[in-house]
Each structure stands twice: as structure tokens, then as C-alpha cells.
Design brief:
α5 (71-82) links the parallel β2 and β3 (88-92). The chain has two domains: 1-31; 32-265, NAD(P)-binding Rossmann-like Domain (Rossmann fold), CATH 3.40.50.720. The longest helix is centred in the middle third of the chain and has 29 residues, at 135-163. It has eleven helices and seven strands. α4 (47-58) crosses α11 and α6 packs parallel to α7. The protein is globular, with a radius of gyration of 21 Å. It has a seven-stranded parallel β-sheet with strand order 3-2-1-4-5-6-7, sandwiched between helices. The protein is an alpha/beta fold. It has helices at 5-18, 21-26, 28-31, 47-58, 71-82, 98-112, 135-163, 174-177, 183-203, 224-233, 242-254, and strands at 38-41, 62-67, 88-92, 117-120, 166-170, 208-214, 262-265.
Length: 271
Amino acid sequence: MVRGSGKRIAREAKQVRGYGIVSVMSSEKSEQSLAGQVALVTGSAKRLGRAVAVRLAQEGADVIIHHRTSTVDAQSAVAEIEKLGRRSCAIAADLTNVAEIKRLFDETAKQFGRLDILVNSAANFLPSSIISTTEEIWDISLDANVKGPFFCAQAAAPLLRRTKGTIINFADTGGLLGWPGYIAHSVSKAGVVMLTKVLAKALAPEVRVNAIAPGTITMPGDPPDWEADFIKLAPLRRTGVPSDIADAVVFLIHSKFITGQVLVVDGGRTL
């Protein structure tokens, strides 16, 4: 050992404690809790939305399950969350209809009295090439994937400003790379990326707004060939799972100095 190194290490350790790093680490668990907070996750009756909703409940939040027509799945999600000891309810709404969006958030305020977290995960995923894209596909894609998240943010803003809350939008790698077989979808998700940036500016400093761009994620029941294709596309040579996305959501909720950013969770596919 170099002479004096022991004293130097002790001195540096003392300095580290002075910056509060030790205390931050020791209290990390308590700071991560979402107890007392209320989250609304759109499209959370099944698939990724449901995985995120359940994870937020596991972190301590009460959770509103939004769905459009998946009533049975939504009630199942509510029951799963209530088993965790959290409050939950299911609210049906068509997010392409502004009046129904307003009703969704009015009902949230009525039942829970507050809102801390909005996760805009509801979306459609319609194939549309340069040949097959119709006006109907174009309108449905942009209404569900861009119009819905914007008017949800607009309706949620008064509640989120009171709690200094956060919005997390779901983009995807199609909005970054552009998929010729999913033109309308890719354009709509690119819109989500820009929507995230303008909302982050418009709602600052009270509300933070970020996005997640999932890619190469497989769900139970997906065709086996999807996983094989995703493994080829991802430098990490594996697919992602719903918990990877839920981890990213929780990370952004707790990252108080991040806003207007898109977190890509794709195993390196966009490289």
C-alpha cells in the first residue's frame, strides 16, 4: 500500500458522506415508494399496459385501469391490483373522442381526488404500406396514437400540476427508424416523440414529460417467429420482456431532473 493512502481513502470517504451519497443510498428504498400516489395507465387491460399498471401497484401506487372494450380483462387487472393491497378501478373510454377523455379524467378526480402519474400506453398497430394505406387507416392510426395522448395530457394537466406529477408516453422504434410496412404507425409514433418534447416545455416546471420507445419486446402468446427475428435484430441477442418496460417507467417516474426525453428500450436494435 502507498504510504498515506489509508488516510487519503478515509478522508475521501468522509467527503463522500458530506455530499450525502451514503445517506441517499441508505434511504433509496424509502425514496422509491409510490405509496399515496395515483396512476392512470391507458390501455392497461392487457399486454404492456397491464404489466406497467401492475408494476406501479407493486411500487405502492393506486391505479386506474383504462380500457375501451376489454371489460373482462380490465376487471381482471383491477382484481390483480387489489390483491396487492392497492385501490383500483376500471374506466372505459374511447380515446379518439375528446368528450370521453374528459369524462375519464373527471371520473379519476371524483374517485381518487388526485393524479400523480399518467402513462399513455394505449395505441393501435396497423400495417400500412405505400400501396395499402387508406384514409381510414391513416386517420385511425393518428387519432389513437397522437390525438389520444395529447388530449389525455391536456385533461390531466390540472391534476398533475397540483401534485407535480409526470407523464410517460409510449412511442416505439418505428417512430425512430420508420417502417415501410407500417407507414401510418411510424408517422404517428414519430408524432409522439415530438409531442413529448412540446408537452415537456408547455407543462414545465410543474410536470415532467418523457417517452419510452420499446422495441424487440415479446409477450406471452406472440408468434415464435417474432422472437427469432427480434434476436437477430438486437445486438444483445435476446428479446426484451414486459418487466424491462415497467422498469423503464419506474425509472422515469423517479428521475426528477429528466424531461422531454425518449428512453429507447430495444436491446440495441436502433444501433
